[in-house]
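Notes to self, Peptidoglycan D,D-transpeptidase MrdA:
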Amino acid sequence: MLIDRDDSYDEGSRDQRRFSVRVLVAVVVLLGLVLMIGVRMFNLQVGAHAHFTTLSENNRLRIEPIPPTRGLIYDRNGVLLAENRPAYQLEVTVEQAGDLDLLLKRLTPLVELTPVEIERFRTSVRQRRPFQPVLLKAGLDDEAVARIAVARHELPGVEIEARPVRHYPQGADFAHAVGYVGRINDRDVQRLDMRNYAGSSHTGKTGVERYYEDVLHGITGHKQVEVNAQGRVIRELSVTPPVPGQDLFLSIDVELQRAARDALAPHDGALVAIDPATGEVLALVSKPGFDPNPFVNGISHRDFAALQSDPHKPLFNRALSGQYPPGSTLKPVVALAGLEEQVTTAERRMFAAGYYQLPGHERRYRDWRRSGHGWVDMSRAMAVSSDVYFYDLGYKLGIDRMAPMFEAFGIGERVGIDATGERPGIRPSREWKRAAQNQPWFPGETLITAIGQGYMLTTPLQIADIASTLANRGQRVQPRLLRAVREHNGAPPVIQPVRQLEPVAASDEHWEVIHQALIDAVHARHGTAWGSIGSTAPSYRIAGKTGTSQVFSLAPDQEYDESRLDRRLWDHALFLAYAPADDPQIAVGVLVEHGGSGGRVAAPIARKVIDFHLASSGLLADAGNAP
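result:
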């Protein structure tokens, strides 16, 4: 068979052309890919140089927060009330830790972790950025620190840090006034500027610690550090130091606080003492108290439940949050309203029988003394605490003329003390009842309001504030716990200014009537505080007023008899006072829960506190002679 050479040549030529085209396409594609790679490399190395340089540096450099040192809290004489003690704590940086469940499993044999601590840790992890250390356990002992250090190579992201931990050396004595700090929770995140809490795990929860959080916390610093691939710090490159919190000096006197606590024993109750000239709170006691130290790093559920279920309610701040009818301690205010409104005079006398009746009504409003007090004027009625006299005065005044005087004294309003938990009480009026109960005001309610019962509620702080206003003859001064602030620059403490409030308007003549009546209540033989204070003849005079606060209402034909009642149904005992009467240095409000008698129980407590304060101030020679 013959082969056509021309056909064979044409076919080979076509194959050669196809091969050349394929080579050319491959070269073009290859050149395109090389060009794309070149462009990409150019963009990476030139166009995005700054961005990737930053990323590279961040793999090598790290910014770490430096939490500030919390400011200290002292009493007025420089005694520590809140300090910072060094302690070891276990912290975890989440971005270095990897699997948290695995990490916690590895830590379990090394350190005791309670379910509460683990739950708090997981909550904090959600609140913090991954590069910020999160507290897992505080208060590590030396053995736990050693065990973790040995196993450190198996615990990525785990560090043991020596951090200052809040401690309250005075324990329960100042728990309600100073308060305490605790771990930051979800509610705290909502109210705090978390940018200033990077590295911080605690914040003020109650009391002064919470109220002055911004002053005590300080400003967070930071440092730039170089780290290796495992996240270990190799060296510090730059540091911006934190600004420590400022130190606070409270107006409270530790020794007076303890004297007040001891004077209250064995009763539950509250005592507030104020310097009438400055408004400085000299003592603020709520009894019983509690140890605030377990709350710092998280009190156990069992211990917290025990405090909550305690029938004496140690967590309840009676001084600021307890609301009680003021009883007869309100009578000086009602008497002043009667004088100012010209519905009575100091000299007007009336026969105070054992009960009072409204015109046209059958109900009898009884006096605390069933036989009555006979003929009384204003001074004697105040001294013997005649309910019938003040029923009559209240009826003549009416609620519409009493309520403005209550308002002038700040009753039913927060006094604005610099602590948490203060409640306003209730200032009853026609408008208040309509708004609160959608009911009209009845004449009988005016009578019981005039003796400090019924709807009216006050706090022990308000009772002390009323005493201070009476001592100043109407000039109200803002009560406060903060006396001075000190920066961490060696400067002396800066004393806080006195803040005067709107005074209670009344004539000097009327103030003198009230003043003398309060002295008679203590030093006249017929006074309700004569037996417990006046009969012991102190070297100075006290102006005061006893009071009882009803726990339950009596039927018209029912008689109050302590001996037949459970102690929990006894009246609360109250007393307000200021001394020395002619040059007041201290004003006191006392509330004894279920104490029964203001004159028999509350007045001697106030006397002991006043004696102690005047003696420590060098103003009293025979201090401590009170029975």
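- The chain has two domains: 64-250, 254-292+314-555+564-617.
- The longest strand covers residues 80-93.
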